[in-house]
Design brief:
Layout: E1 3-6, H1 13-22, E2 31-34, H2 45-54, E3 59-61, H3 65-74, H4 89-92, H5 97-105, E4 111-113, E5 118-120, H6 131-146, H7 150-156, H8 171-184, E6 187-188, E7 194-195, E8 210-211, E9 225-227, E10 236-238, E11 241-243, E12 253-258, E13 263-268
Parallel strand pairs: 1-2, 2-3, 5-9, 9-11
Antiparallel strand pairs: 1-12, 4-5, 6-7, 6-8, 10-11, 12-13
Length: 279
């Protein structure tokens, strides 16, 4: 039995199957984690959703910004983008669409395995959060998305403010900040304010902002955290941090990490989108 964590798939079903063949994944005994963004921009989002759903308890995926985008489009809270950017029509027209969307909105924002000592999110954690607070915040947004009134959450989740954490945050502002950390965060400044507009790789960063995982007073130091979302960062491991989005969608690779021994596997990808549009 092995547990594999894979980076953002975004509808690249062919490459996913190639990767699973490489690692000799056994759906009866092995477990497959994903850092989120199962869907969108790649050609086979419907197949990816169906595949993860049918794996049942042997699959764990956290929610990414593109997964939330699908849910918001389905409920009419945001527009379907140009076909070169959004490739979710097949999901919206599928006979099992509602079943798939219900399954998707019941996925977690944070997953923690105490035995393996790994925590997985899509994007990042606010520097002010330790594990206990991050877990609490995840439960708050999960409850909102899983409730009968989940439409209200989808209608209020967009926006870049508030930018700074305070435990006094309340209502939609609090949930929006939490959502942005889990699904959009890459950089923050030294005061801990989110810099959601910054997307480039750290080696090209000319500002004062730092990657969230390099913040000098990050309260989650000591945790082993798996995340995706940052294709320009690529596969990156440092001090218990494992970035797994190696840009499959943009012609990079699809990467998996075997958690029991931290062995890395990858397959090259042909690319389904233009890198300049990456988010």
């Amino acid at each position: 039995m092995s547990t594999y964590a894979v980076g953002d798939i975004q509808g690249c079903f062919t490459e996913l199957q190639q990767l699973l063949e490489l690692i000799q994944f056994n759906p009866q005994t092995d477990y497959l984690w994903c850092t989120g963004d199962l869907v969108n921009r790649g050609p086979n989002s419907l197949e990816v959703l169906r595949f993860f759903k049918q794996l049942g308890d042997h699959a764990i995926t956290v929610l990414g910004n593109h997964d939330l985008h699908l849910l918001a489009v389905a409920e009419g809270y945001t527009k379907y983008h140009d076909p070169d950017e959004d490739t979710i029509t097949d999901i919206l027209h599928a006979a099992d669409c509602q079943e798939l969307l219900t399954w998707l909105r019941h996925r977690p924002f944070l997953h923690h395995d105490a035995q393996l000592n790994f925590t997985m999110v899509h994007a990042g954690l606010a520097p002010q959060w330790d594990f206990s607070l991050a877990n609490q915040c995840a439960h708050e947004v999960e409850a909102a998305l899983r409730s009968e009134n989940f439409n209200a959450y989808l209608g209020k989740m967009y926006g870049d403010k508030p930018k700074e954490w305070s435990n006094k945050l309340s209502s939609w502002g609090r949930l929006r900040f939490i959502t942005n950390c889990f699904t959009r965060l890459r950089y923050c400044d030294l005061n801990g304010k989110l810099a959601l507009d910054k997307k480039g790789s750290p080696d090209k960063n000319k500002g004062e902002e730092v990657p969230w995982f390099q913040h000098p007073t990050r309260c989650s130091q000591g945790m082993r955290i798996i995340f995706g979302h940052w294709s320009t960062l690529g596969y990156h491991a440092e001090s218990g941090i494992y970035a797994l989005d190696s840009g499959c969608l943009w012609g990079g690779a699809l990467t998996a990490l075997r958690l029991e021994d931290e062995t890395v596997f990858s397959v090259k990808c042909k690319g389904e989108a233009v890198p300049a549009k990456s988010d």
